[in-house]
From TrEMBL:
This is RND transporter. Residues 278-396 form the SSD domain. It is a multi-pass membrane protein. Its main location: membrane.
Length: 822
């Protein structure tokens, strides 16, 4: 109901002469009474950090991707020197397109490629393996006993006789299915990698991937085909895809700018908001090299998140100043009043964002901890660029008069008797009993259903190959080829068996290893195994003229010692105190890894003794299993911490536990539905996706803070919930709607990225942007109806504030709105 009001119809003309520059908080006076100094400092900092940003490096580290504190990884690192190649390695499959590998031209090309990759920086040359390395040997049984040697025969010259000898040696080497494909049309060059190059610098994976691609292009012109897999190649492909990622960033920025300009119709204010958000990104990127940080393929998305958060807060400041100017205030006065009203809410929101990032530090995986630090730095600089620099800039530039008038169009329409716009009337329904009840019940049903679905959420990768990349990417096609043609997949799970020195060949120890070998081979997802016990069985068959009935582990220590003496060093170490049992898996899906870990742990519990201790785990699959365990433990612990911190900050801001519930419960619903969405889309919780869940809480609370701050201020001045919520919609709610939809569209474009984990993040972030917005605009007022105490309104005509300008702070009459909040 509209009630005419002379005060409502009269604009507030706050000139500089009327305004007391000594009013406001100490921070406000320090900033706005020294505006030129503030701008000069920001300009110098931007120039300095912009120059520093040019020194920022983009790289990745295998060691940063693994949980170094986990017992599995501790065992691996303790024996790392004896297990070289079981962590970070590259496999290069060289395919003869014209026939088998027993071809002189193919072998010559393989030798040339072998010699070139041997010299690549970061290669652990002592453990490199291919047909041309001396460590690749054969063992055979003759009338005179066991014989052996390198698979490449002495005096090899490419003749037919040499090729026949090579074929015999390969068939006796037990390398078919490992270094040689089952169809014998390809062979592998196995490159274990060191953490640092010869100069002691961290291995540059981007450069290594480029060198491998250069070799691929060079040798594929010689009638062969090359397939490459390994962590270094995944990182290289991710870094190559960053060029397209930058295009998506640019598209998101353009979309945001266009929508913001459509809303404001003011080029200068839109440009300032965009500029301040980009300045925040420049400051963030400039601080990273100063603090010794690098960007990696996982943290490279953080600068856009910082930009998105900056746009959200900047739009709120711009909207407040625009409305005040529309009410007749001078741009400097409008900037100061908006600073007073929204600084506390904005600061609390940014602190919640920072907490959402900082909580990731509890996850003991360095790449996530680095992401947390990098993101927290970005949020910290937003306090200066978007809460301080932007209002100061707008106090000089202001907005266009037409844009200022347009920002009050809804408010003026109601004053003129046109009533509320349709969308405001719809949202206002949720402050009424019937609609609020339906909304809360529906939210409860969604929460219950979402929670039931989220119980099926998997930890780890749910797809074969590299899930960070598309299924049809070149890497995943290469990986599929190796899995199909080799029994020894790239997903190696290694169990370490620790014994007393010299005890690795004892019958009791080998029998236990043999039992575990058989147990693992029967598990779904295990393609093949290899161990010293298995070698003893094979050798005994060879010594028995190939009779399969002698496929046994003989209880004869002299025979066991003889076989051990000639066994490859990859099966045991120099002092015979460590055995290694290899399980070659079909994939590294969460279920596959879980089965293997459970099986080995149960076996170790029953069979560990002083003579043999079964330790988990090495190999790429073993390390990933440890990572999954850490992620699983941290996933819910992380949410408890982030929600706890957000609740405390909201409680300090609102001073009302009821208001805190209104703000936090919509976030809880979004978190539950996000996990349900991950189940539906087949996205597992892993290193790449775990941060998104925490970020959704920290970023999402921004919307609730801006809406609830105005609602509480209005309620405490005697307004009804409907009146208070309407004023919140006019002042901050419509910008919440604007930024929620705009940012969702911006990150939604990531769906088309060639980098799958970026596409996954885009889907999840867009979902959370939209649902947090919906929660702040629909569920929050519905909860407020039941939770927030409302003072009885005796006469609506007397109490109702027709427009927000009646509750705005004036120089000598009314306290600032943020004081009302406190």
């Amino acid at each position: 109901m509209h009630v005419p009001s002379s005060s409502a119809a009269t604009p507030i003309h706050s000139t500089l002469e009327d305004f007391d520059s000594r009013s406001g908080s100490l921070l406000e006076r320090a900033l706005f009474n020294h505006r030129r100094l503030v701008l000069l400092i920001c300009l110098l900092v931007t120039a300095l950090l912009g120059w520093q940003a040019t020194r920022l490096e983009l790289n990745a580290s295998f060691e940063k991707m693994i949980p170094n504190d986990h017992p599995f990884i501790a065992n691996y690192l303790e024996h790392r020197q004896e297990l070289s190649g079981l962590g970070n390695a590259v496999r290069i499959a060289v395919i003869n397109k014209k026939g088998s590998i027993y071809d002189a031209a193919y072998l010559q090309t393989l030798q040339q490629l072998n010699d070139e990759v041997y010299l690549l920086p970061g290669v652990d040359r002592a453990f490199m393996k291919s047909l041309w390395t001396p460590s690749t040997r054969w063992v055979g049984v003759t009338e005179e006993g066991l014989e052996g040697g390198p698979v490449i025969p002495d005096g090899y010259d490419g003749s037919a006789q040499s090729l026949e000898a090579l074929q015999r040696n390969i068939e006796r080497s037990n390398e078919i299915g490992q270094l040689v494909a089952f169809d014998q049309q390809s062979s592998i060059i196995y490159l274990p990698l060191l953490a640092k190059d010869a100069d002691g610098k961290p291995l540059d994976y981007s450069a290594l991937a480029q060198q491998l691609e250069s070799l691929r292009g060079k040798y594929q012109q010689q009638g062969i085909e090359i397939r490459i897999t390994g962590f270094a190649k995944v990182v290289g492909d991710l870094i190559d895809g960053l060029r397209q990622i930058l295009l998506f960033f640019a598209a998101a920025i353009v979309i945001t700018a266009v929508v913001l300009y459509w809303y404001t119709r003011c080029l200068r204010s839109t440009t300032l908001v965009m500029a301040c958000s980009l300045v925040a990104v420049v400051w963030q990127l400039g601080l990273l090299p100063l603090l010794g940080y690098q960007l990696d393929p996982y943290s490279v998305l953080v600068p856009f998140l910082v930009f998105a958060i900056g746009m959200s807060h900047g739009a709120q400041k711009m909207n407040g100043i625009m409305q005040d100017i529309g009410r007749g205030m001078h741009r400097l006065v409008a900037a100061r009043f908006t600073f007073r009203r929204l600084f506390l809410a904005g600061l609390t929101a940014l602190l919640c964002d920072a907490v959402g990032f900082a909580v990731l530090m509890i996850i003991k995986i360095q790449v996530i901890q680095d992401l947390a630090v990098i993101a927290s730095i970005g949020v910290a600089v937003l306090i200066f660029t978007n809460l301080i620099l932007l209002p100061v800039l707008l106090s000089y530039v202001g907005v266009t008069p037409a844009a200022a008038v347009r920002s009050l169009r809804s408010e003026q329409a109601e004053i003129d008797g046109a009533g509320k716009q349709a969308i405001w009337r719809f949202l206002d329904l949720f402050t009424q009993r019937r609609w609020a009840t339906v909304c809360v019940l529906l939210a409860a049903v969604l929460a219950g259903g979402g929670y039931w679905v989220s119980l099926h959420l998997k930890i780890g990768d749910l797809d074969a190959g590299a899930p960070e990349l598309r299924a049809d990417s070149r890497y995943n096609l290469d990986n599929a080829y190796l899995t199909q043609h080799y029994g020894a997949s790239s997903d190696i799970f290694a169990v370490m068996v620790k014994t007393p020195a010299g005890g690795c060949s004892s019958y009791d120890t080998l029998q236990r290893v043999d039992n575990l070998d058989w147990q693992l081979r029967g598990l779904p997802g295990v393609d093949a195994t290899n161990s010293l016990a298995l070698l003893n069985r094979r050798v005994l068959v060879g010594l028995s003229e190939g009779n399969p009935k002698w496929y046994e582990l003989v209880n004869n220590q002299a025979t066991l010692n003889m076989v051990t003496a000639g066994a490859p060093r990859g099966l045991y170490n120099e002092d015979c105190s460590l055995l290694t049992l290899y399980a070659y898996l079909t994939d590294h899906k969460a279920d596959t890894l879980g089965r293997v870990v459970d099986s080995v742990q149960a076996f170790a519990k029953d069979n560990d003794s002083e003579q043999a201790q079964f330790l988990l785990a090495a190999g790429s699959a073993g390390i990933e299993a440890a990572t999954n365990i850490v992620v699983k433990q941290a996933s819910h612990e992380m949410l408890w911490w982030v929600y706890g911190a957000v609740i405390v900050l909201c409680l300090v801001t609102f001073r009302s536990w009821r208001a805190v519930l209104c703000a936090v419960l919509p976030l809880v619903l979004t978190s539950i539905l996000c996990e349900a969405l991950m189940v539906w889309l087949g996205i597992g919780v892993k290193v790449a996706t775990l941060p998104v869940i925490a970020l959704g809480v920290g970023i999402g609370v921004d919307y609730a803070l801006y809406v609830m701050s105005i609602v509480l201020a209005q309620l405490r001045q005697g307004a009804s919930l409907s009146q208070a919520y309407y004023q919140a919609l006019l002042f901050t709610g419509k910008v919440v709607m604007l930024t929620g939809v705009t940012l969702a569209i911006g990150v939604g474009t990531w769906i088309f990225s060639p980098i799958k984990f970026q596409a996954d993040m885009g889907v999840l972030l867009a979902f959370m942007f939209v649902w947090n917005m919906v929660g702040a605009l629909i569920l929050l007022p519905a909860l407020a109806y039941f939770l927030l105490p409302q003072k009885p309104v005796v006469s609506q005509a007397v109490v109702k504030p027709q427009t927000l300008r009646e509750t705005l702070p004036e120089p000598a009459t009314k306290p600032p709105l943020h004081a009302a909040i406190r």
